[in-house]
Amino acid sequence: MLRFDLISIFPEYLAPLKLSLLGKAVDKGLITINIHDLRDQTMDVHHSVDDTPYGGGAGMVMSAAPWGDAIDQISNDLDQIDLIILTPAGKKFDQAMAAEFTKCKQLIFACGRYEGIDARVGKHYENKSNFKVHEVSIGDYVLGGGEVAAMVIIEATARLLPGVLGNPESLKEESHSIISSSDDLLVEYPNYTKPAVWRGLEVPEVLLSGNHGQIAKWRKEQAERRTDQLGKE
Ligand code: 6GU
To answer: How far away, in angstroms, is 131 Cα from ligand 1 center?
Structure first.
C-alpha cells in the first residue's frame, strides 16, 4: 500500500486525482491519496503563506513554518518517508524515477507556488534519518505551481503498481519500457484499430497478415525509426 500525501494552497486543483485510474486504485485499496491545505497551518487572520525574498528581487517566497508544520503533521510516527519538493530547478522526472517511487511507503508532495519554498524546508528534512528529500521537475518549462507536476508523477508512478492497471500486459509493450537489443529505451510503435480503411487511409498490410513474426519485426523497426526521429528534432 503506497500512500500519497499532497500539500497545496489550492487543494481543489488536485481534484482529478479522484478520477479514473487513480480513483479506482484508491477504491481497490491499492493506494491512498490525501490532500492537505497548507493554509490550515496558518494562525494569522490573513492565512499568509509567503513573504518577500531575503536579498531582494521580484516575487514572493513561501515561508518555511507552515510547510514544516504541515509535513510534521502528515509524517507522524512513520519510519520511511520520501518528500518530493516540486520545483523547475529539480531533477528531471522520467520513467526510471517513477519505477523507483513505486518502492516507497509514503510520498509527500510539497506543491509550491510563487518563487518556490524557503530552501531551509528541504534542508531540515534532509537532516532527518526517516526522510529522503527529492527535488523534482517534470520538464524544461515553468508552471504556475507544483500541483500539475505532482499529478503527473503520481499518475506515472501509481499505474506501475501491481493491480492498478486493468491489463498489466499493457505495461510490457508501451513507450519507454520497450528494451531493444542494445538496451536502449524505445518509444512505442504506431497502433491501429478497426476499420481497416478510414478516410482513405489504410492500416499497414503486415498488421492484417496474421504473421506474428513479421508483425513483431515491423513493430520493432517502427519503434526504432520513431526513436531515431525524436533524437533528430
Ligand atoms: Cl515541478 N514546478 C513548476 N512550478 N514548474 C515546473 C515544474 C515544477 N516542472 C517543470 N516546470
So the answer is: 22
